[in-house]
Design brief:
By secondary structure, the chain is of the alpha/beta class. Helices cover about 30% and strands about 25% of the residues. A seven-stranded mixed sheet has the order 10-9-8-11-12-13-14. A five-stranded parallel sheet has the order 1-4-5-6-7, sandwiched between helices. The protein has a two-stranded antiparallel ribbon with strand order 2-3. A hairpin with a 5-residue loop joins strand 2 and strand 3. Helix 1 crosses helix 8, helix 4 crosses helix 5 and helix 6 runs parallel beside helix 7. It is globular, with a radius of gyration of 20 Å. About 45% of the residues are buried. Bound molecules: ribose-5-phosphate. The site of ribose-5-phosphate has 12 residues, from strand 11 and helix 6.
Length: about 290
Protein backbone atom coordinates (compact mmCIF):
# COMPACT_ATOMS: atom_id res chain seq x y z
CA UNK A 1 0.00 0.00 0.00
CA UNK A 2 1.07 3.57 -0.62
CA UNK A 3 -0.63 6.82 0.41
CA UNK A 4 -0.83 9.61 -2.17
CA UNK A 5 -1.60 13.06 -0.70
CA UNK A 6 -3.71 15.71 -2.38
CA UNK A 7 -2.73 19.30 -1.71
CA UNK A 8 -5.81 19.85 0.50
CA UNK A 9 -5.06 16.88 2.75
CA UNK A 10 -1.30 16.72 3.19
CA UNK A 11 -1.32 16.57 6.99
CA UNK A 12 -3.98 13.85 7.20
CA UNK A 13 -2.28 11.81 4.45
CA UNK A 14 1.02 12.00 6.35
CA UNK A 15 -0.60 10.91 9.65
CA UNK A 16 -2.42 8.12 7.83
CA UNK A 17 0.76 6.77 6.23
CA UNK A 18 2.43 6.94 9.66
CA UNK A 19 -0.42 5.07 11.41
CA UNK A 20 -0.52 2.41 8.71
CA UNK A 21 3.29 2.20 8.49
CA UNK A 22 3.20 2.54 4.71
CA UNK A 23 5.07 4.95 2.40
CA UNK A 24 3.80 8.41 1.49
CA UNK A 25 4.27 9.36 -2.17
CA UNK A 26 5.81 12.69 -3.14
CA UNK A 27 3.49 14.73 -5.32
CA UNK A 28 4.58 17.89 -7.15
CA UNK A 29 1.87 20.50 -7.66
CA UNK A 30 1.81 23.62 -9.78
CA UNK A 31 -0.56 25.82 -11.74
CA UNK A 32 -0.19 26.85 -15.34
CA UNK A 33 -0.33 30.59 -16.12
CA UNK A 34 -4.03 30.20 -17.04
CA UNK A 35 -4.59 28.67 -13.55
CA UNK A 36 -5.11 25.12 -14.82
CA UNK A 37 -3.74 22.58 -12.39
CA UNK A 38 -0.80 20.22 -12.91
CA UNK A 39 0.47 17.45 -10.72
CA UNK A 40 3.04 14.70 -10.91
CA UNK A 41 3.14 11.69 -8.60
CA UNK A 42 6.81 11.08 -7.89
CA UNK A 43 6.54 7.44 -6.80
CA UNK A 44 6.08 4.23 -8.78
CA UNK A 45 2.53 3.06 -8.04
CA UNK A 46 2.71 0.03 -10.38
CA UNK A 47 1.08 -2.98 -8.74
CA UNK A 48 0.31 -0.98 -5.57
CA UNK A 49 -2.87 -0.59 -3.55
CA UNK A 50 -2.86 3.19 -3.87
CA UNK A 51 -4.78 5.32 -1.36
CA UNK A 52 -5.52 8.82 -2.61
CA UNK A 53 -6.32 11.32 0.15
CA UNK A 54 -8.03 14.53 -0.87
CA UNK A 55 -10.81 16.67 0.54
CA UNK A 56 -13.12 17.61 -2.32
CA UNK A 57 -13.80 21.17 -1.25
CA UNK A 58 -13.56 23.87 -2.44
CA UNK A 59 -14.23 23.14 -6.12
CA UNK A 60 -10.60 23.36 -7.27
CA UNK A 61 -9.82 20.35 -5.07
CA UNK A 62 -12.36 18.26 -7.00
CA UNK A 63 -10.41 18.93 -10.20
CA UNK A 64 -7.17 18.05 -8.47
CA UNK A 65 -8.70 14.79 -7.22
CA UNK A 66 -9.85 13.84 -10.75
CA UNK A 67 -6.29 14.39 -11.99
CA UNK A 68 -4.91 12.31 -9.10
CA UNK A 69 -7.15 9.38 -10.09
CA UNK A 70 -6.10 9.66 -13.72
CA UNK A 71 -2.41 9.88 -12.85
CA UNK A 72 -2.63 6.88 -10.49
CA UNK A 73 -4.50 4.74 -13.05
CA UNK A 74 -1.73 5.41 -15.61
CA UNK A 75 0.82 3.27 -13.68
CA UNK A 76 -1.21 0.86 -13.49
CA UNK A 77 -2.14 0.37 -9.83
CA UNK A 78 -3.40 -2.87 -8.29
CA UNK A 79 -6.33 -1.00 -6.74
CA UNK A 80 -7.37 2.55 -6.05
CA UNK A 81 -8.95 3.76 -2.81
CA UNK A 82 -10.24 7.27 -2.35
CA UNK A 83 -10.14 8.78 1.13
CA UNK A 84 -12.31 11.89 0.90
CA UNK A 85 -12.04 13.43 4.39
CA UNK A 86 -14.50 16.24 3.71
CA UNK A 87 -16.92 15.46 0.90
CA UNK A 88 -18.05 18.76 -0.63
CA UNK A 89 -21.69 19.12 -1.74
CA UNK A 90 -22.86 16.42 0.70
CA UNK A 91 -25.43 18.85 2.15
CA UNK A 92 -27.07 19.25 -1.27
CA UNK A 93 -28.45 15.74 -1.26
CA UNK A 94 -32.01 16.51 -2.40
CA UNK A 95 -33.77 18.30 -5.20
CA UNK A 96 -35.56 21.10 -3.37
CA UNK A 97 -37.17 22.49 -6.55
CA UNK A 98 -37.71 21.33 -10.11
CA UNK A 99 -34.67 21.97 -12.32
CA UNK A 100 -32.10 21.51 -9.55
CA UNK A 101 -29.40 18.82 -9.51
CA UNK A 102 -28.84 16.31 -6.73
CA UNK A 103 -25.40 17.75 -6.26
CA UNK A 104 -24.06 15.07 -3.89
CA UNK A 105 -24.93 12.46 -6.57
CA UNK A 106 -23.29 14.46 -9.35
CA UNK A 107 -20.09 14.74 -7.33
CA UNK A 108 -20.18 11.04 -6.40
CA UNK A 109 -20.47 10.05 -10.06
CA UNK A 110 -17.52 12.25 -11.00
CA UNK A 111 -15.09 11.49 -8.20
CA UNK A 112 -15.68 7.77 -7.80
CA UNK A 113 -15.25 6.83 -11.47
CA UNK A 114 -12.25 4.49 -11.58
CA UNK A 115 -12.16 4.15 -7.79
CA UNK A 116 -12.46 0.73 -6.10
CA UNK A 117 -13.06 1.81 -2.49
CA UNK A 118 -14.22 4.97 -0.79
CA UNK A 119 -13.71 6.21 2.77
CA UNK A 120 -15.36 9.39 4.06
CA UNK A 121 -15.30 11.04 7.49
CA UNK A 122 -18.50 12.19 9.19
CA UNK A 123 -20.21 12.65 5.86
CA UNK A 124 -23.25 14.88 6.32
CA UNK A 125 -25.66 12.08 5.35
CA UNK A 126 -24.51 8.53 4.68
CA UNK A 127 -27.27 8.27 2.04
CA UNK A 128 -24.82 10.01 -0.29
CA UNK A 129 -22.74 6.84 -0.27
CA UNK A 130 -25.51 4.94 -2.06
CA UNK A 131 -24.31 6.59 -5.28
CA UNK A 132 -21.08 4.57 -5.10
CA UNK A 133 -21.01 0.87 -6.08
CA UNK A 134 -17.67 -0.19 -4.59
CA UNK A 135 -16.67 -1.02 -1.02
CA UNK A 136 -17.06 1.95 1.26
CA UNK A 137 -16.93 3.16 4.84
CA UNK A 138 -17.88 6.36 6.58
CA UNK A 139 -15.98 6.85 9.82
CA UNK A 140 -16.52 9.26 12.68
CA UNK A 141 -13.96 11.54 14.27
CA UNK A 142 -16.16 12.02 17.35
CA UNK A 143 -13.96 9.62 19.39
CA UNK A 144 -10.94 11.79 18.54
CA UNK A 145 -12.87 14.95 19.40
CA UNK A 146 -13.79 13.41 22.77
CA UNK A 147 -10.14 12.48 23.42
CA UNK A 148 -9.15 16.08 22.73
CA UNK A 149 -11.88 17.50 24.98
CA UNK A 150 -10.80 15.18 27.82
CA UNK A 151 -7.63 17.26 28.10
CA UNK A 152 -9.47 20.59 28.00
CA UNK A 153 -8.84 22.58 31.17
CA UNK A 154 -11.06 23.52 33.08
CA UNK A 155 -13.02 20.47 31.85
CA UNK A 156 -16.28 19.84 30.00
CA UNK A 157 -19.44 19.27 32.06
CA UNK A 158 -22.00 18.75 29.31
CA UNK A 159 -22.01 18.07 25.55
CA UNK A 160 -24.70 19.70 23.43
CA UNK A 161 -25.63 19.29 19.78
CA UNK A 162 -26.83 22.50 18.08
CA UNK A 163 -29.79 20.55 16.61
CA UNK A 164 -31.38 17.11 16.91
CA UNK A 165 -29.61 15.96 13.70
CA UNK A 166 -26.27 16.06 15.52
CA UNK A 167 -27.56 14.56 18.77
CA UNK A 168 -26.00 11.16 18.11
CA UNK A 169 -22.64 12.93 17.69
CA UNK A 170 -23.05 14.71 21.02
CA UNK A 171 -24.04 11.39 22.61
CA UNK A 172 -20.86 9.68 21.37
CA UNK A 173 -18.66 12.47 22.71
CA UNK A 174 -20.56 12.73 26.02
CA UNK A 175 -20.37 8.99 26.65
CA UNK A 176 -16.62 9.01 26.04
CA UNK A 177 -16.25 11.91 28.50
CA UNK A 178 -18.68 10.42 31.03
CA UNK A 179 -20.91 13.54 31.05
CA UNK A 180 -24.51 14.32 30.10
CA UNK A 181 -25.65 15.35 26.64
CA UNK A 182 -28.53 17.27 25.14
CA UNK A 183 -29.51 19.16 22.00
CA UNK A 184 -30.73 22.67 21.28
CA UNK A 185 -34.43 22.63 20.58
CA UNK A 186 -36.12 25.33 18.52
CA UNK A 187 -39.71 26.04 19.57
CA UNK A 188 -41.98 28.44 17.71
CA UNK A 189 -43.80 30.48 20.33
CA UNK A 190 -45.80 32.67 17.90
CA UNK A 191 -45.52 34.13 14.41
CA UNK A 192 -42.58 36.31 15.43
CA UNK A 193 -40.81 34.42 18.21
CA UNK A 194 -38.66 31.31 18.16
CA UNK A 195 -37.30 30.07 21.46
CA UNK A 196 -34.06 28.08 21.35
CA UNK A 197 -32.74 26.28 24.41
CA UNK A 198 -31.29 22.95 25.54
CA UNK A 199 -34.15 20.45 25.47
CA UNK A 200 -33.79 19.13 29.02
CA UNK A 201 -30.54 20.14 30.77
CA UNK A 202 -29.67 23.30 32.67
CA UNK A 203 -26.28 24.68 31.62
CA UNK A 204 -25.99 27.23 34.41
CA UNK A 205 -22.43 27.26 35.72
CA UNK A 206 -21.43 24.42 33.39
CA UNK A 207 -18.70 24.28 30.75
CA UNK A 208 -20.26 23.16 27.48
CA UNK A 209 -18.88 21.46 24.37
CA UNK A 210 -21.04 22.22 21.34
CA UNK A 211 -20.43 19.42 18.86
CA UNK A 212 -21.34 19.37 15.17
CA UNK A 213 -20.19 17.77 11.92
CA UNK A 214 -19.68 21.03 10.00
CA UNK A 215 -19.21 24.65 10.93
CA UNK A 216 -19.73 26.72 7.81
CA UNK A 217 -21.08 30.27 8.31
CA UNK A 218 -20.83 29.72 12.05
CA UNK A 219 -24.43 30.93 12.42
CA UNK A 220 -25.66 27.75 14.09
CA UNK A 221 -22.86 27.71 16.69
CA UNK A 222 -22.90 31.47 17.35
CA UNK A 223 -26.66 31.42 17.96
CA UNK A 224 -26.41 28.38 20.24
CA UNK A 225 -23.45 29.84 22.16
CA UNK A 226 -25.25 33.13 22.75
CA UNK A 227 -28.25 31.25 24.13
CA UNK A 228 -26.08 29.04 26.36
CA UNK A 229 -24.12 32.01 27.73
CA UNK A 230 -27.38 33.89 28.38
CA UNK A 231 -28.49 30.87 30.40
CA UNK A 232 -25.38 31.06 32.56
CA UNK A 233 -23.03 28.59 30.85
CA UNK A 234 -19.35 28.92 31.77
CA UNK A 235 -16.94 28.15 28.94
CA UNK A 236 -18.34 27.15 25.55
CA UNK A 237 -16.08 25.10 23.30
CA UNK A 238 -17.16 24.63 19.66
CA UNK A 239 -15.86 21.34 18.27
CA UNK A 240 -16.49 20.03 14.77
CA UNK A 241 -15.10 17.53 12.33
CA UNK A 242 -15.11 19.84 9.30
CA UNK A 243 -14.07 23.45 9.81
CA UNK A 244 -15.39 24.95 6.58
CA UNK A 245 -15.50 28.49 8.04
CA UNK A 246 -17.07 30.49 5.23
CA UNK A 247 -15.84 34.06 4.93
CA UNK A 248 -16.06 35.91 8.26
CA UNK A 249 -17.17 32.85 10.26
CA UNK A 250 -14.03 32.44 12.33
CA UNK A 251 -14.03 36.08 13.41
CA UNK A 252 -17.64 35.74 14.62
CA UNK A 253 -16.89 32.47 16.39
CA UNK A 254 -13.79 33.84 18.12
CA UNK A 255 -15.84 36.65 19.63
CA UNK A 256 -18.51 34.24 20.89
CA UNK A 257 -16.86 30.93 21.83
CA UNK A 258 -14.04 30.28 24.28
CA UNK A 259 -12.37 27.75 22.00
CA UNK A 260 -12.95 26.51 18.45
CA UNK A 261 -11.43 23.21 17.43
CA UNK A 262 -11.66 21.05 14.30
CA UNK A 263 -10.01 18.04 12.70
CA UNK A 264 -7.61 17.80 9.78
CA UNK A 265 -10.34 16.86 7.28
CA UNK A 266 -10.03 20.55 6.38
CA UNK A 267 -6.72 22.04 7.41
CA UNK A 268 -7.02 25.47 9.02
CA UNK A 269 -5.88 27.41 12.09
CA UNK A 270 -8.34 25.58 14.39
CA UNK A 271 -7.17 22.11 13.36
CA UNK A 272 -5.87 20.30 16.43
CA UNK A 273 -7.20 16.76 15.95
CA UNK A 274 -6.37 14.14 13.34
CA UNK A 275 -8.91 11.77 11.81
CA UNK A 276 -6.10 9.42 10.74
CA UNK A 277 -6.82 6.64 13.27
CA UNK A 278 -10.48 5.94 12.31
CA UNK A 279 -9.57 6.24 8.62
CA UNK A 280 -6.69 3.75 9.06
CA UNK A 281 -9.02 1.33 10.87
CA UNK A 282 -11.61 1.61 8.10
CA UNK A 283 -9.00 0.98 5.44
CA UNK A 284 -7.86 -2.20 7.18
CA UNK A 285 -11.45 -3.46 7.07
CA UNK A 286 -11.90 -2.76 3.37
CA UNK A 287 -9.05 -4.91 1.97
C1 LIG B 1 -26.48 21.07 9.56
O1 LIG B 1 -27.28 20.18 9.33
C2 LIG B 1 -25.06 20.82 9.94
O2 LIG B 1 -24.95 19.74 10.82
C3 LIG B 1 -24.45 22.06 10.55
O3 LIG B 1 -25.13 22.37 11.75
C4 LIG B 1 -24.52 23.22 9.63
O4 LIG B 1 -24.03 22.87 8.38
C5 LIG B 1 -23.73 24.40 10.17
O5 LIG B 1 -23.84 25.45 9.26
P1 LIG B 1 -23.53 26.94 9.68
O6 LIG B 1 -22.18 26.96 10.33
O7 LIG B 1 -23.54 27.68 8.38
O8 LIG B 1 -24.60 27.41 10.61
Amino acid sequence: MIVVPGSASGALAKSLAHHMAVPLAEVAHRRFPDDEYHLRIGADLSGEDAVLVQTTWPDRNIVEFLLMVDAAREFPVKSLTAVVPYYGYARQDKKFASGEPISSRAIARAITAGVDRLVTVDIHDTLTLKWFDGKMANVSAMGQIAAYLKNYKPGIDVVIAPDDGSMYRAKTVAEALGVEFDFMEKKRIDGHTVEIKPKKLSVSGKNVALVDDIISTGGTIVQSTNVLKAQGAGKVVAACTHGVFAAGALQKLKVTCDLIVSTDTIENETTAITAAVPVAEALKGLY
